[in-house]
Write a structure and sequence with these properties.
The protein is an alpha+beta fold. Helices cover about 20% and strands about 30% of the residues.
């Protein structure tokens, strides 16, 4: 019996010694957590298994939206020579300074397989050369098809094969609080994605453009993001990032984007006509304040008051007078000056439209045939 106990004790001792050697030199044989070498001890790291290809993204992740939208967002590099660079007298006094180029950075969105790129007018305004850089590192020169300074939009054309194209969303369905992504090339660091929410809709009277109907967002937008994409979390285009409110030059959480509904109309008009065709009736509108209402004897509480009418213009020919309040254009109500301008701009020149007015407390109907809105005098000619 004593001999059997001695054999058992020796066997246990050998097994413990073997287990110690294996645990020290080959811990993975025992199924231990991964050991991190190079330290006095070990750190147990529990690694998640690799996700299979095509697996659903992490909950709360925007990676699927970015994969869909980001390939169609491009960087735009512009250069411009001094306008007097070829003047002999300029070169005599300033030497080679005339050869120096001013460069600019911005972003753009590929809108069609034909190579039409939508961006901001201020990104390409005054540029002599425009280069478009795709996320896949392809580079090509771009041609300006047309510009619209009044909405700060421009359409470029590039010639490349197999272009990624942005999927358009419905910006009219956006609501305050919806999550959005801003994609662009801020400060020239490369394509960058930021996220935020829709902070407000229909922002106007900001003094940025003639026609303003901005989406406001707190997604970080910085210099270089201009012309880039504002998308929903499905990767669908909702707007063209245009401007920021900032005291430092950087993002302060107040950015503005042109709704894709507006941008699409402008792009299609430029591609079809070489310019944006807008309606115009020749009136000077004003917000309906209590002071103006009292001055003109107006009883209406909603609408846009007309303070001036251009002689022999479309409005004058239709019988509209100063002091009239326009409450409706076609079947769409007008509550503010910006709404009235947008309604009129969307009208087709030469096609009569019913206007609903109020004149000294009495409803009046007028049939107005809009003309084409004159182009701004300071607008650069399309190249």
């Amino acid at each position: 019996m004593k001999r059997l106990w001695l054999v058992f004790a020796q066997a246990v001792t050998v097994l413990l010694a073997a287990w110690f050697v294996v645990a020290t030199l080959k811990p993975q044989w025992l199924g231990n957590p991964r050991a991190v070498p190079g330290s006095t001890g070990t750190i147990s790291i529990l690694e998640a298994p690799a996700a299979p290809t095509g697996a659903s993204p992490t909950p709360g992740s925007f990676s699927a939206a970015v994969r869909q939208a980001a390939p169609a967002v491009v960087s735009i590099n512009t250069s411009a020579r001094h306008p007097a660079a070829n003047d002999p007298w300029f070169r005599f006094f300033f030497g080679d300074r005339g050869e120096q180029q001013q460069t600019g950075l911005g972003s753009g969105v590929i809108m069609s397989p034909e190579g039409y790129v939508l961006t901001n007018n201020h990104v390409v305004e005054g540029a002599d050369e425009i280069e478009v850089v795709l996320p896949d590192a392809r580079r090509t020169s771009a041609k300006v098809i047309g510009t619209d300074p009044e909405s700060d939009l421009a359409v470029l054309k590039i010639s490349l094969d197999k272009l990624p194209v942005m999927t358009l969303g419905n910006s009219d369905q956006l609501q305050v609080g919806d999550q959005v992504l801003a994609i662009g090339n801020p400060f020239g660091v490369g394509q960058t994605v930021t996220s935020g929410i829709v902070s407000a809709l229909g922002r106007n009277q900001l003094g940025i453009n003639t026609f303003e109907n901005f989406i406001q967002t707190d997604a970080a937008i910085n210099p270089g993001n201009s012309g880039g994409a504002l998308t929903d979390i499905g990767g669908h285009l909702m707007g063209i990032n245009t401007a920021i409110y900032s005291r430092s030059g950087g993002s302060m959480g107040i950015g503005f984007a042109i709704p894709v509904s507006t941008a699409r109309q402008v792009m299609e008009s430029i591609v079809r006509n070489g310019q944006v065709v807008r309606g115009w009736i020749g009136v000077e509108p004003g917000e309906l304040t209590p002071e103006l209402a009292q001055t003109f004897g107006v009883k209406a509480e909603q609408g846009v008051i007309i303070t001036g009418v251009l002689g022999n213009g479309p409005a004058a020919q239709a019988g509209i007078r100063p002091g009239d309040v326009i409450t409706q254009v076609g079947d769409q109500p007008t509550r503010t000056v910006s709404e009235l301008l947008s309604r009129i701009a969307a009208l087709a020149p030469g096609q009569a439209v019913p206007f609903t007015l109020e004149r000294r407390g009495e409803p009046v109907q007028a049939s107005v045939t809009p003309a084409q809105r004159p182009r701004p005098r300071q607008s650069p000619a399309p190249r």
